[in-house]
Amino acid sequence: MSAYIIRRIILILFALVGVSIIISLLTMALPADYVDIMLGTEQRTLTETQIQSLRSLYDLDDSWFERYRRWIVSIFQGTMGHSLRTGRPVSTEILMRLPVSLELALGATIIGLVIGVLLGVLSAIYREGLSDFVIRIFGLTGLSIPPFWLGLMVILGLALFFNWTPPRGRAINILADPIGNFKQFIFPVLVLSVAMAAALMRISRSAMLEVLQSDYVRTARSKGLTERVVLIKHCLKNAFIPILTLASMQMAYLIGGTVVIESVFSLNGIGILLLNAVNTRDYALVQGVVLVITFFFAFINLITDLIYGFLDPRIRYE
Question: Residue 152 contacts by C-beta under 8 Å, 6 or more apart in sequence?
Fold first, then answer.
């Protein structure tokens, strides 16, 4: 197990290096740069010498290799470079926004996992019945509704019928004000969890239907085990691997993919940070955010693989 973890960590490091090179090259290939975006139409009032002086001030006239080398050094220094727009270290900018996206992703994953698995199991147990039909309609609807539209409808409905809107502005710290944090995050988390619950319901149903027809389930029932024990200990545990795979991938995606919901509910998460960084050509910030998102993808993948071995004794990492 230790050797496997070490190999995976080495692969993660190679992946991070590869992603950092690719994203650095892509940001350099973007049309215009930070100076062009900052000046806008006022660029016509400046001479070419003045514009070049500004580019030199922000080190934008350096070669790709020099800028990439300087950024790699800054990672080991703990700053990950400095934002061109704010002047603050990229690591500081990310740490200010990352808790918002993590809370959204974790909350949506937990709620989506509980609801999705529960509905999927019920749908499999009562296959072809009325409950199965209703649950499958929910799954299809949940996958079809765009999250941004659902978020707008939630805000509109709360404002029209209850004269109440979710708190907006700066994210409320959960440790400083748990109640305020709950009020601010509950609706965006619920909106994000709808699509996740629908997807998990469908895969839970398919996995449970396959397991329910297995020989070991019939053997467990023939031994006189209660239906509850059969479903939880023998069926759900063996059907949980594909469920866990989808849930972990969805959570990893949500860490950097909640930009629309963050915009709708005015939450300054890492998705909004990345979008603004791309729009302003803030190269170091773009590279830093993408690197952090890549790390979370790789880390969640590693944890998921290790959990596989716990769920299924046949899986061993030597």
Answer: 264
